[in-house]
C-alpha cells in the first residue's frame, strides 16, 4: 500500500514538473533559442543591396565576368529568334519566325487542348466560356485571348508568356518544345480570328452550310 502511494506521489510530482516546464518555455529569456535542426536556416551569404566591405564599392552585387552566362540564361544568350522570341536587337518579334502551315495549326490545336484548355477553355475565353479549372473554383480568372490587348500583342509576347509564364501562370518551357510553343501561338491566333470573322471571310461555296 505504501509503495502504491509512493508511486502515485512520484507520478503527480513528475506531471507537475512537466506542466511547470511547459509554462516556463513561453516566458521571456535572455538566453539564445535552442534550434535543434537548423537545416541551413542561417546561411553565411550576402543579399542584394547589403553592405559588403570586401569590395571597394561596398556592394556584394558584381558585374558578370566577361564571357560568362548566368544560370538559366543560356537559351536567351545563345538562341536565335526561334528560341527567344526576340529579334537581333532584342525586341519582341511581331510575327512568328516560322511559316504557318496546316500541319502547324493542327499540332497547335492538339497541344493547346493539352496544356491550355484547363484554364483558358476551348475557345480561349470567348464570352463566359472558361476552362474546367475555373469552373471548379479557380478564383483568379485568366484573361480572355479575345481581349483587345492580347489581340494586338506581338506573337513574340505570346510565345514568351507560354515559355516563362506571367503573373499567376507558370512557364511551360520545360514541358513544351520550342516548335510546339509557336504552334500554340499560331492556334491562338486562329481562335482570335474565329471570334472576329465575318461572312465574307467564308468561301462562297461553304456559306450555305453555315
Low-confidence stretches: none
Task: Report the radius of gyration as a whole number of Å.
Answer: 31 Å
**What would you call the shape?**
flat
The amount of beta strand, in percent, is under 5%
Number of strands: 2
**How would you spell out the order of helices and strands?**
HHHHHHHHEEH
Percent of residues in helices:
40-55%
> What is the CA–CA distance across the termini?
99 Å
Tell me the major beta sheet: 2 strands, antiparallel
Tally of DSSP helical segments:
9
The overall pLDDT, averaged over residues, is 82
Secondary-structure content class: mainly alpha
How would you describe what is shown here?
The protein is mainly alpha-helical and 210 residues long. The chain contains nine helices and two strands. It has a two-stranded antiparallel ribbon. Helix 4 crosses helix 9 (178-194). The longest helix has 23 residues, at 2-24. The radius of gyration is 31 Å and the shape is flat. The mean pLDDT is 82.
Summary keywords:
210 residues, 40% helix, mainly alpha
Which helices and strands occur, and which strands form pairs?
Layout: H1 2-24, H2 74-78, H3 81-84, H4 102-115, H5 117-120, H6 132-135, H7 148-151, H8 155-164, E1 165-166, E2 169-170, H9 178-194
Antiparallel strand pairs: 1-2
Helix pairs in contact: 4-9, 8-9
How would you summarize this macromolecular structure in one to three sentences?
With 210 residues, the protein is mostly helical.
Amino acid at each position: 500500500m505504501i509503495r502504491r502511494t509512493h508511486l502515485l506521489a512520484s507520478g503527480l510530482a513528475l506531471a507537475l514538473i512537466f506542466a511547470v516546464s511547459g509554462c516556463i518555455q513561453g516566458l521571456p529569456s535572455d538566453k539564445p533559442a535552442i534550434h535543434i535542426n537548423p537545416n541551413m536556416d542561417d546561411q553565411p551569404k550576402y543579399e542584394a543591396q547589403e553592405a559588403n566591405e570586401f569590395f571597394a564599392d561596398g556592394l556584394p552585387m558584381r558585374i558578370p565576368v566577361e564571357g560568362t552566362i548566368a544560370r538559366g540564361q543560356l537559351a536567351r544568350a545563345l538562341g536565335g529568334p526561334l528560341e527567344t522570341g526576340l529579334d537581333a536587337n532584342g525586341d519582341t518579334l511581331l510575327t512568328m519566325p516560322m511559316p504557318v502551315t496546316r500541319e502547324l495549326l493542327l499540332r497547335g490545336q492538339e497541344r493547346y487542348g493539352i496544356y491550355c484548355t484547363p484554364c483558358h477553355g476551348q475557345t480561349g475565353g470567348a464570352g463566359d466560356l472558361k476552362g474546367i479549372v475555373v469552373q471548379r473554383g479557380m478564383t483568379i480568372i485568366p484573361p480572355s485571348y479575345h481581349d483587345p490587348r492580347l489581340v494586338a500583342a506581338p506573337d513574340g509576347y505570346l510565345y514568351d508568356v507560354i515559355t516563362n509564364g506571367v503573373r499567376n501562370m507558370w512557364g511551360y518551357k520545360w514541358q513544351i518544345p520550342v516548335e510546339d510553343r509557336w504552334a500554340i501561338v499560331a492556334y491562338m491566333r486562329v481562335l482570335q480570328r474565329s471570334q472576329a470573322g465575318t461572312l465574307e471571310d467564308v468561301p462562297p461555296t461553304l456559306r450555305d452550310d453555315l
